[in-house]
Amino acid sequence: MMKIYNYTDDNASEIFKKPVDAQSVAETVSEIIANVRANGDKALKEYSLKFDKVELSDFKVTEEEIEAAYASVEPEFVRILNEAAENIRDFHKHQMRSSFVVSEKDGIVCGQKIIPFARVGLYVPGGTAAYPSTVLMDAVPAKLAGCGEIVMVTPPSKDGEINRYILAAAKIAGIDRIYKIGGAQAVAALAYGTESIPRVDKIVGPGNAFVAEAKRQVYGEVAIDMIAGPSDILVVADEKSNPRFVAADLLSQAEHDKLASAVLVTDSRALAEAVQAEIEVQLSMLPREEIARASIEINGKIIVTKDISEAIEVANLIAPEHIELCLDNPFDVLDKVKNAGSIFMGRYCPEALGDYLSGANHTLPTNGSARFSSPLSVDDFVKKSQFTYYTKEAFEKVYGDVAYFAEKEGLQAHAKSATIRFEEV
Fold this sequence. Notes:
The chain has 425 residues and is of the alpha/beta class. It contains 17 helices and 14 strands. The protein has helices spanning 12-15, 26-39, 41-52, 63-72, 75-92, 132-145, 164-173, 183-192, 209-218, 243-254, 269-283, 289-299, 308-318, 351-356, 392-396, 399-408, 412-419, and strands at residues 3-6, 100-102, 108-116, 119-123, 149-154, 177-180, 202-204, 223-224, 232-237, 261-266, 301-304, 322-326, 342-345, 382-390. The chain has a six-stranded parallel sheet with strand order 1-11-10-9-12-13, with helices on both faces. Strands 6-5-4-7-8 form a five-stranded parallel sheet, sandwiched between helices. A three-stranded antiparallel sheet has the order 2-3-14. Strand 5 (149-154), helix 7 (164-173) and strand 6 (177-180) form a beta-alpha-beta unit. Helix 8 (183-192) packs parallel to helix 9, helix 10 packs across helix 11 (269-283) and helix 16 (399-408) packs antiparallel against helix 17 (412-419). It is globular.
């Protein structure tokens, strides 16, 4: 059963403790990365047989496989995938940046240019659940950014096939290459390249603990979006909230993973108890009850505060991946929410809307990292270079200042590089 805490009475360390994760996978992942780096496709084939129980001669998904999968998908779902993709484009196009040039001073030109990554890798989970939504969320911003090539990796089934919905989403998103490989070995292949899988500049997308650890270990060799942990949700709700709605929203994240975290913060003890009871009712009806129940019992909690203002304070301390503001006037408190990945506002805006259709990205900072991290965006698929140009006349006015500054830092060669240009030979 979901625990209820009174914020003013209970131990804060108990209320704010992080989700339990006893998995230590660093050593295993390190061995996998070293093997793939040394042995390439040979290592990938061994891991496919070991972990995915499939023997593959070729990892690449053919155009024929993509077209056949797309043709087999229900037309209604194709329509929804296209609608979701269009909404994602409409949202993310506002994030696009332009290069700039500053030339207000005579003889001086400075600026910044935006450069899309030449090749990015998308990791798409395919284990206990398949996520075509993740394909769209990761690929559409990459396309808008102008990336040269998008490479997707996703684990195959035991018959060597990729989920048809994932392939349909990949076709709609315009992904360039798709490979049948998952786990830490897929991350290693993207980071270092193999005979069949090209090396990329950046790896994005969620995965299990092995995938997250692999991204951590290859960071520096390639860029990554974030180290994503188990999903989490925090619902801020007042006494007028429908306990059935709130319970359903909490369970929408609990069903992801036994280590997922679902938290309700409310100023109503009556709502807290009603949601606690409703959670039990709805849990018994879920196909993924075992996963959701473990999440609720290990990491789920209900926190009762004195008012909604204090509830927002608690939410900012937790810094959730998703926050729902189940209030009549959520815009009144929007500015007070400082730490959250994605904010869902009102009584008819469940987090699932953001997962699939609204257009805002669902690849989000987890485990409290919303204090300093942001949702995946077009910015994740570009880098920036800056440039500076001075004429002789412009530099002559300031070279003495440059040299003086350098000398204060004890860097005589720096200073000399400025003064030498105006010394008489």
